[in-house]
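Protein 1 of 2
SEQ + STRUCT:
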Amino acid sequence: MRQQFGDWFSLLENMGDLDEAECALLAAHREFLRELEITAMTKSFKMVLLEAFQELDGWRQAPAFAELAERSWQVLRRRRPLLADLPPEQAQLASGREPQWLRYWMSNPVNAWIGENRKAGEKRYFTAQDERFAPLFQVAEEDRERFAEWVQELVDYRLAAYAGRQSVRTAPVVALPVVPQMGTELPYFPNLKIARGHFKTGRADCEEYRLLGEGFGRLDPIRHFIARASGNSMNGGKHPIRDGDYLLLEHVSPSSAGSITGATLAIERQDEAGDNQYLLRVIHKAVDGSYFLRANNPDYADIAVDDGLTEQLRTFARFKAVLDPLQLAVGQRLLREEIPALFGETFNPGNWNSGHVFLPEAKAHVLLVTLNKQGKADEHRYLDRWVDERTFHWQSQNKTTPEGKRGREIIDHEKRGLSIHLFVRENRLENGKAAPFVYHGPVRYRSHSGSGPMSVVFEVMG
């Protein structure tokens, strides 16, 4: 393919799969996209840096080196198998803000991209400009979204190919000095949609990891994984599965599935184009010994598994449980408007633009904390800070007192069956836009002092 067409997007252009605007975009940036597709990779870092650059909206505004290094650290934490590429002294650093990490990142992928490691005469695509990582070419504003999609497609491809070559999945991952959390980190496949209506095409790539707490028996990251449900066919019965639910699944094969009658299984087949499709159904056995697939929703007809369909189907995974989104959100970055959905709520600016939200139906207090209060009037600069990795000092709004309704709910939240959830961000803005919060999970009241406002010490649970 590369000999004939030069690169992937030129092949798409030749096949007529790009429209006129996309052809013009390709013509303007063909060299860079080709470089991204073929650049040498002895480690994963060049692609990790580009993923971080895109997450920081780097095509619009060049990110500072420190900011880029910190986000690259977060990308590596999310793509945990790639941590094996780090030397032990870097993998054991506490965070991506450490000076040693910035020096290491500058001397490796940053230098590789800005040209200090390139041979004389080789074209450069990025440069150092006012302590920022800046592209040497411009992407038109109307093209940035599509261009970023193309770049991410190539980044995902290169990292997948690299993982295959290096056997990253089986490489030992150096443990980081973080607070131990109870549970098991399982692969999460955001692009793998398990359909609950009709067969739905999905991709089992772009793997991430999510920490799942105790209470699900013995979990094995090799066999167990997480995916999203899609559709309505299983939304019925005593245990409905709704559109968008997070599903805990266990890989099975025909030889390891055991008895499947009455079990809820994810079934895989390939369509005419060779793409994998997935369907969630309860397996039933008819009187004549044949099998059929049944939905929980009676609006959907049974699917008889005849000889023709048998040849197409493969038992893919056994359904284990529907997971609470909050269990999977710990450690994730979430914009303010994305947080309500974790609690089954709809975003309402009048309610959610404050730092303390109470949700009566969910019986939950949600604390949205910005540590750096620059730009706030003095009376609103609440003293919020981390005491240590497990302890957070939070200051309430000025009207909250220990004797008042909200103060009592904070102090007695466990007795009253209320939960408190902590979301924290460093600054209000990130690259000129509203910064996301990091979810630290539920917290437990430990002590308080003062009144109007109250100063409360919380223990991070888990």
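Protein 2 of 2
SEQ + STRUCT:
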Amino acid sequence: MNLHNLQETDVRIQLLNRLKERIIAAKSNVAEALMADLGKPSEEAEVTEIIPVISELRHIVKNLQSWVLPKKVNKSLLHLTADSYILYKPKGNVLILSPWNYPFNLVISPLAYAISAGNRVTIKPSEFTKNTNRVLKQIVSACLPSEICSFVEGDAAVAAELTSQPWDHIFFTGSPAVGKKVMMAAAQNLVPVTLELGGKSPCIVTENADLEKAARRVAWGKFTNCGQTCIAPDYLLVHKNIYDTFLGLLKSELQTLYPQACLGRQDDSGYGRIIHQSHFLRLKELLDEATDKGAKHLLPYFFDADDKFMSPVVLELNQKHDSLRLMEEEIFGPLLPVFSWQNDDDITPFLKRHSKPLAAYIFSRSSKEARFWRNRINTGGFVINDVLSHFAHNNLPFGGNGSSGHGRSHGFFGFREFSIEMAVLESGPGPSGAELVGPPYTDLKRKIINTALKLV
């Protein structure tokens, strides 16, 4: 089998299987690299970075033969005898720009979908995750020919040079600020772009919620990867009637999940680190401003700039704090602002100010209440009684809305994102629709047109 011929679906499947097997064999190396770059515990690395991509690869391999088949479409009035279908073709040469927060997952996942659609790929990983990049290159070079997948490393200047080139598609994961630069550069060559960005993802806890479940899931979803997750709950809106009870449960859950970190002990084997000093200092500035403006702390907080350690921080705020930088920017760290609310109108200003988040969450036992907020929040993903979990669902599209991104990945949607959906029409026997209603316009054709007007 010629493994360079990506036109053949069997070749794509073979390459993806090789990639999957190589990842499984190298998982301890991946985990060690993630620990070195992000202080990520090995169990967390497996759960959030390794297992999801293995699952995706298996899902792609299982379904790719059906995905690539031409998709028949219904006949239309003017094309009753024609065969019409959608054919999925590779876009060509694609560029993947990946971030530092999940540097393994967010390289392998789009790479897998790009290969599944038959593309050749260039990867520009983050310059802040050199250990993970080294392992990634070892894995990929052992599975994929260099003509099919190559790496280019460097800083923002290298990324800017890459995005100025006439690719057939660019897939970018990162901040909205950089996403704008990518899109502007791509526009010069009319290159289609997928943007997976971020935003301030709200989490609403209602008085109908299972509070223990909500506290446990929020504690994990917010503080895994030290809060550096694009779909992490960015701020909490907790109903006034259960506010104190919920915060008590949240405090207890954090002390259970991260017992040493909550005491300022940096040897907590389950808690990660901030990626680099500049991001640490930014988070410290957000924290200091909130503290100076009267924010209450649910837990004592600890930090060590040299070790890039910052313990879980929960800040009790009120509406007068909405002008804090903490509430202007996506936090992307282990700081969790909490507001109380009593009426639906108390929540609306938050949703208007921080519209179109990448994700939104609600905890409620009332399906009516959940549907109410689902219909009011314009978000890429809406999750009821959980957080983050939609990302790992291979049959759901993942992506943003407006300022949180556009385009979709995961499952069939990821395959489609890297494909050209070619419309194909094979004309059948007999006269075409244009011949039936086109010039010269006879009385018969006038009757046909009048009939068509009634039928369409």
